[in-house]
Amino acid sequence: MVTKIKQIEGLEVGPMTEDDLDEVMQIERMSFRVPWTPGMFRQDLSFPLARCLAARLGSAGKKRLAGYILCWFIADEVHVTNIAVRRDIRQQGVATLLLQQALCQARREQMRYCTLEVRVSNEAAKGFYQKLGFESRGIRPKYYSDNNEDAMIMWLDL
Ligand SMILES: CC(C)(COP(=O)(O)OP(=O)(O)OC[C@H]1O[C@@H](n2cnc3c(N)ncnc32)[C@H](O)[C@@H]1OP(=O)(O)O)[C@@H](O)C(=O)NCCC(=O)NCCS
């Protein structure tokens, strides 16, 4: 199913495919200190428990990738493994639409809660998750091996 919101004209969310990978990698590399590799995205695209959604912007035939979300649906838990939005269109509701779509799918599949880890220094992402109703449920010390940064565990009951 494709969903539209009114904040950005022409924004749609649908399944991510291999055809999105070049644009996914552009966003990924500008968004993270330790970006995923194309192989990691390919693994998730073929992993039966993964759900991979892409937001696209523009008119038919000239669509551009706006952002993406990847989650694992395991037992009754959704774990968000990756979410990013193209830098020049942040704070316009793209990530909100992506996460809401993933959570709609989670509720349809009777998931009970959603969890994720976020760098303690990532104020934008922490603000984003809090706005969507997530709460902090603890710290994983030195979770990120590139700089030994702690992760905050975020949690949402569905
Ligand atoms: C985190 C991220 C995905 C948010 O995407 P986005 O499309 O800009 O988010 P939205 O526009 O849906 O924001 C919704 C709310 O989140 C909060 N938020 C988003 N960006 C924020 C920022 N830079 N500072 C503070 N709060 C922010 C705000 O409450 C915002 O609501 P508002 O615009 O009404 O104030 C985006 O900043 C990003 O791609 N960051 C790099 C990758 C990343 O850190 N991913 C998360 C890893 S855990």
Could you characterize what this model shows?
With 158 residues, the chain is α+β, with helices and mostly antiparallel strands. It is 27% helix and 38% strand. It contains 4 helices and 8 strands. It has an 8-stranded mixed β-sheet.
Radius of gyration: 15 Å
Strand numbers in spatial order across the main sheet: 1-2-3-4-5-6-8-7
Class based on secondary structure composition and strand pairing: alpha+beta
Q: What spatial form do the alpha-carbon principal axes imply?
A: globular
Distance between the termini: 21 Å
Strand content: 35-45%
| CATH topology type of the domain at 3-112 | Aminopeptidase
CATH homologous superfamily designation of the domain at 3-112:
Gcn5-related N-acetyltransferase (GNAT)
Bound molecules: coenzyme A
Task: Provide the CATH architecture of the domain at 3-112.
Answer: 3-Layer(aba) Sandwich
Number of strands: 8
Tell me about the largest β-sheet: 8 strands, mixed
CATH class of the domain at 3-112: Alpha Beta
